[in-house]
Design brief:
By secondary structure, the chain is an alpha/beta fold. The protein has six helices and 15 strands. The chain has helices at residues 21-38, 57-63, 70-82, 175-183, 197-215, 264-273, and strands spanning 9-14, 40-44, 85-87, 91-93, 108-114, 120-125, 131-134, 139-142, 156-159, 162-166, 188-190, 218-221, 239-241, 247-250, 256-261. Strands 1, 2, 3, 4, 5, 6 and 15 form a seven-stranded mixed β-sheet that branches. A six-stranded mixed β-sheet has the order 9-10-11-12-13-14, covered by helices on one side. Strand 10 (162-166), helix 4 (175-183) and strand 11 form a beta-alpha-beta unit. Helix 1 (21-38) runs parallel beside helix 3. The two termini are 28 Å apart.
Length: 280
């Protein structure tokens, strides 16, 4: 088990998906450098930080099938260079063997976790896919056209900042998943996301706060920016929320980072006063 630093600093990175892959990776690297310089121990990237809006997710999954894929190698090198634990947003990936997915099925939207030595330690496959229609806004989105849902297994892992659980974007709308993480002893929930402008404006911060209050956990929500994009606009508004539902740090629609101190002792006090997670 990794030792937890006294009141460690955690960072959420907010990027915009414009430009080609290399320019996206370059901007991500610069923001992670800034997080490292501020003293962050754990950095969380947004969903689709490298690949956003591409229809050929199967082709990307082929190229990222091993740790030598461009984005996977980038994340490993970045973690090692800046001595950061990194929650790597999401990438399109095949099954865990890396040899391909089910016949005729698209890849998973997968979150990879890297240690500060550049080791790829854990993987979470997004469970709930964003298949939504809002006719009055002429809004239709079918994530299942390009991704396969995960097998329903949640992930909790030990990090230098505390015990971390992962939810990805649409997963946030399902309290059952957050409570399952809480039952596994989670202290911090990370939620790499690419919330749309339409849903993000109304629900993004509300959902982050709700999941924090449900579980009395810190919730770190890095969101993809891009409110002014003509197609597939994303909300931005990355935020970090404490176990009492207070917003510790937040952004607008610009690229950048936010940081917050993780005070596990204060969290213990909150949980002692409000024993929501006490097992009967």
């Amino acid at each position: 088990m990794t030792a937890v630093a006294h009141k460690p600093l955690i960072a959420a990175v907010q990027t915009n998906s414009h430009g080609d892959l290399q320019s996206r990776l370059d901007r991500t690297a610069d923001l992670c450098r800034q997080a490292s310089e501020r003293g962050a121990r754990l950095v969380v990237l947004p969903e689709n930080f490298a690949y956003f809006g591409e229809k050929d997710t199967a082709g990307i999954a082929d190229r990222e099938a091993t740790g030598k894929g461009v984005a996977r190698q980038f994340l490993s090198d970045l973690a090692r260079q800046y001595e950061l634990w990194i929650v790597g947003g999401t990438l399109p990936l095949w099954d865990r063997s890396g040899k391909g997915g089910a016949p005729g099925k698209p890849p998973f939207a997968s979150t990879l976790i890297y240690s500060d030595k550049g080791e790829e330690l854990y993987r979470y496959d997004k469970i709930k896919l964003f298949d939504v229609s809002i006719p009055e806004q002429n809004f239709h989105y079918r994530e299942s056209d390009t991704f396969t849902p995960g097998n329903g297994k949640t992930l909790v892992f030990n990090s230098p900042a505390g015990k971390v659980g992962v939810l990805v974007c649409f997963d946030l709308r399902f309290p059952r998943l957050a409570l399952e993480l809480a039952n596994k002893g989670v202290e911090i929930i990370v939620a790499p996301s690419a919330f749309t402008r339409e849903t993000g404006e109304k629900h993004w911060k509300l959902l982050l706060r709700a999941r924090a209050i449900d579980t009395l956990s810190y919730v770190v929500g890095p969101n993809l920016a891009g409110r002014k994009r003509s197609k597939k606009a994303t909300w931005g508004g990355s935020a970090i929320v404490d176990p009492w539902g207070e917003v510790l740090a937040e952004m607008g629609d610009e690229e950048g980072i936010i940081t917050a101190v993780i005070d596990l002792e204060r969290q213990k006090q909150i949980r002692a006063r409000m024993p929501l997670l006490k097992k009967d």
